Amino acid sequence: MLGRSPTFTAAVFGLALGLSGSVAAAELNIAAQSLEGALRELGQQSGRQILYSPDLVQGKRTGAVHGDLDVSAALQQLLRGTGISYQIENNTVLLRGPSEAGTLELGPVNIAGAALGVTTENSGSYTTGSTSTATKLPMSLRETPQSVTVITRQQMNDQGLGSIAEVLGQTPGVTVMHDDSERYNFYSRGFALDSFQYDGVPTSDFTTNTNGLGVRDMAIYDRVEVVRGATGLMSGVGSPAGVVNLVRKRPTKDFQGYISGSGGTWDRYRTEMDLSGPLSENGALRGRVVAAHHDNQSFIDYYSQKKDVFYAIGEADITPDTTLYAGIDYQKIDSDGSSFGQLPLYNSDGNRAKFKRSTNPAAKWTYADSQSTKYFGGVEHRFDNDWMMRIEASHWKGTTDQLQGNIVGWGPFPDETTRIAELQRSRVNYKINADSVDAYATGPFSLFGRTHELVVGLNVSNRRSDYQSLDGGSINVNYDTWGNNPPQPDAFTFQQSQEYKIKETGGYAALRLNPLDDWHVILGSRVVNYEREGTLTYGWKPNDPSDDSAKKTGKLVPYAGIVYDINDIHSVYVSYTDIFTPQSLFDKNDKALEPLTGKSYEAGLKSEYFDGALNTSFAVFTIKQDNLGVDDGVRTGGLAAYKATSGTTTKGFEMQLSGQLTPGWQMLAGFTYAQPRDKDGNRINTNLPERQFKLSTAYKLEGALRDLTVGGNVTWQSSTYSEISYPMDARTDEGSFAVVGLMARYDVTKNLSASLNLNNIFDREYYSGYGLYSSAFYGDPRNMTVGLKYQF
After folding, report:
1. Distance between CA 518 and CA 352 in Å, rounded?
2. CA-atom Rg of the chain in angstroms
3. Which UniProt keyword terms apply here (predicted)?
């Protein structure tokens, strides 16, 4: 019987907690969509509880249902052609597949769980039912004692989020700084957010400012989970900012797929395909393939980019309890007219330089080409006692080749009178290889008559990278008349090289103790062995390389959290963890700074409504750090110098709402205030806003417009400023600003939809980042994208 299967999972839908009683005919408004999403809306609009196995509906789609219908009539329309039958018992609806004979029985099914699951694809939601990024233990957002945001597949589709930079741009509490045409840096709570995971596995593959991670394509991901605050338990060496976990799409047991195409302003064109399903009759062998091609010009003169993405993964159930999987993730990005740094901020007299948004400071012949290939595979075994063990290994290889020729915004600065600027020409090559292994086991255990949870694991990573830059010489150009076509360099001379070998081993364990029904205590620790061998060689002293090596053995990073359930809706929590981050920063004597250390404290209130379909949170936090590297002018060769400062403190608070407000209305919104200060109370990282508000929403209309979904997004930030003290004192201020976008999607049929995304509708002129060498990057002007998508 269906109710007696140990793998059966109940999905419960209700418009409000405690809703009961038989509901007769009701005015229903359910658009064409995935069958899972349609069943969720039917449960919410009718007040019924609908129970089924997720595998039963996975990959299936259905047509629209509208009108004054009872539940039985609505189910007949939704389930037509699926082979799924139903049985109504009082206020509960039970679904069964064509192979399940006899009468359905509810059996020992737990119907108290959240309606949403871990996977966000086909959920139609802007929130999730479970996340494990913070502690590796699968918990709801309310159960996790840290600030967590999940950007779901539905939000990425609705808002047209195609890159990790665009995803983090809509993530509350995260600041995206656009350094130049190819590179981004991300920040949270005032500090660099540079810790990334793939499917929960820490990676040292590449930083945000190398090899195109900032423009990494999102076609292959189900969701992006962002934990803000120190996460040393799960993310290797602990960063005070947080961690970003990119969760890949997985194969499905039922066939599903889509093809899509879009076009937009500045000749932006994109095609995308996603096919998933069984490769054997019983679905024990299944696979998924995702491919995308992106080609675009830009509002920036002479700049263009092409991107190709390919992703393939296969899964095999070699026994009912053991699954093997393997895959490849490939991305190639070729950019022409690419800039290293962006428009200079200052003239030689210290006044602000004046350039149009469309001005490209790079020569037409510049380019930036990168390739990224990642192979991964693993095994997952589920034991009879509800324990699970998983082992994954991966190999990553990345290369970058750049020919650079840029007007620079530093010594000498452009001359406003003569219109003369210096153009630097160079060649850059970067190679990286990284191997990693992650193994962990998790499951429940009993102690003192209560059930608790434990996870133990081990990460091992080994990264090797080589960077080399060659100087092609500097020339002067008249930036009014040069036409972006200066002479290319005839020859190159050695400028600098960097060779790194980084090994890291981390063992971790975490307990979730449940001493009382309403109290939950999470205790954990990570033991880190970190070794970095770095050699930096400069052209002005080729026989005297600088050493950037660091080693730490047995570094203990503790973690603790307590959650108290006030009632069925609200919980309060506190959490604490240590900070430990080795730094590749140098002082004026070419000596590497000691690792950043500190402590992070957080407390908050979390609430969930409508069986977890809507989540809210409020958090206050304090971060204390020592050995923070701050700007200290320049060192030999004009390179940046830093000094370590202790007593740095960041205080702030965050508010967030995510999920469904009413049937058909999804929203993610958040406000953040973070105040980083040095020991004397002075503001640090002034080019980052201290206050941010972000909102993304989509609403499905009713009545005659029931096939139309409308929405939009707003990003607001407070004022920032950037200043320099060498070779002159100068400062750039940017006031607070907001950028607004709109979206619409129309379901032409149950399989075909058309979409429209309008970005920066008020054409706000603003800086999207302060870049290298006293430069700034303009945000995109008003633009639009239209698309068609056909789903199988």
Report:
1. 59
2. 27
3. Cell outer membrane, Ion transport, Iron, Iron transport, Membrane, Receptor, Signal, TonB box, Transmembrane, Transmembrane beta strand, Transport
3-state helix, strand, coil in the chain (%, to 5): 5, 55, 35
**615 in the same domain as 555:** yes
Cβ–Cβ < 8 Å for 114, 131 = no
Mean pLDDT of 442-468: 91
Name the band, by pLDDT with cuts 50, 70 and 90, for residue 40. confident
Q: Assign 535 to helix, strand or coil.
A: strand
Q: What is the CATH number of the domain that holds 174?
A: 2.170.130.10
Alpha-carbon span 699 to 636, nearest angstrom: 57
Q: Say if residue 634's pLDDT is above 70.
A: no
For residue 701, count CB atoms less than 10 angstroms from its CB and return exposed for 0-12, middle for 13-18, buried for 19 or more: middle
Answer yes or no: are the C-beta atoms of 712 and 396 closer than 8 Å: no
User: Tell me, what's the pLDDT at 351?
Assistant: 87
pTM (predicted TM-score):
0.85
Last residue of a domain, one of 69, 96, 123: 96
**Which residue carries 């995803």 as its tokens?**
167
What are φ and ψ of residue 300, in 5° steps? -85, 130
Q: Which residue has the tokens 């090289």?
A: 497
| pLDDT band at residue 21 using 50, 70 and 90 as cut-offs | very low
By the 8 A CB rule, do 594 and 644 touch?
Answer: yes
Q: Please report which confidence band the pLDDT of residue 109 belongs to, taking 50, 70 and 90 as the band edges.
A: very low
Omega into 6 within 30° of 0, i.e. cis? no
Residue 636 is predicted with a pLDDT of 63
CA 150 to chain centre: 8
Domain of 751?
248-791
Does 505 share its domain with 569? yes
Asked whether the beta carbons of 440 and 462 are under 8 A apart, the reply is: no
- Cα(326)–Cα(699) distance, rounded to whole angstroms? 38
Task: Return the amino acid letter for 719.
Answer: S
Instruction: Single out the residue of 26, 66, 73, 21 nearest to residue 46, CA to CA.
Output: 26
Token look-up 């959290």 returns: 561
Token match 């930030």: residue?
Answer: 717
Give Cα 792 to chain centroid, integer Å.
27
Q: Give the 3-state secondary structure of residue 763.
A: coil
Strand duo 196-198 + 242-248: pairing: parallel
Q: Is the pLDDT of residue 81 over 80?
A: no
User: Alpha-carbon torsion 143, 148, 154, 155, what sign?
Assistant: positive
Mean pLDDT of all residues in the chain?
86
Residue 575 parent element (H or E): strand 570-581
How confident is the model over 287-310, as pLDDT tens digits? 999 999 999 999 999 999 999 999
What are the contacts of 479-486 at 24+ separation with CB within 8 A? 479/407, 479/414, 479/419, 479/420, 479/421, 480/419, 481/419, 482/423, 484/301, 484/302, 484/337, 484/360, 484/362, 484/363, 484/364, 485/363, 485/364, 485/365, 486/363, 486/405, 486/423
| pLDDT per position as a tens digit, 657-694 | 999 999 899 999 999 999 999 888 888 888 899 999 99
Q: How far apart are CA 441 and CA 326, in angstroms?
A: 19
- Rounded alpha-carbon distances, angstroms, from residue 57 to 52, 546, 666: 8, 60, 22
Rounded Cα–Cα distance for residues 456 and 325 (Å): 22
Split into its structural domains, the chain has a count of: 3
* Amino acid sitting at position 62: T
Q: What is the pLDDT of residue 11?
A: 35
Looking at the structure, tell me whether residues 222 and 258 fall in a common domain: no
Task: Judge whether residue 464 has pLDDT over 70.
Answer: yes
Tell which of 52, 71, 96 closes a domain. Answer: 96
Supply the angle between the helices 35-46 and 71-78 in degrees, to the nearest 10. Answer: 170
Is 661 contained in some domain?
yes
The residue ranking higher by pLDDT, 629 or 599, is 599
pLDDT confidence band for 212 (50 / 70 / 90): low
**Strands 775-778 and 767-771, bridge-based pairing:** antiparallel
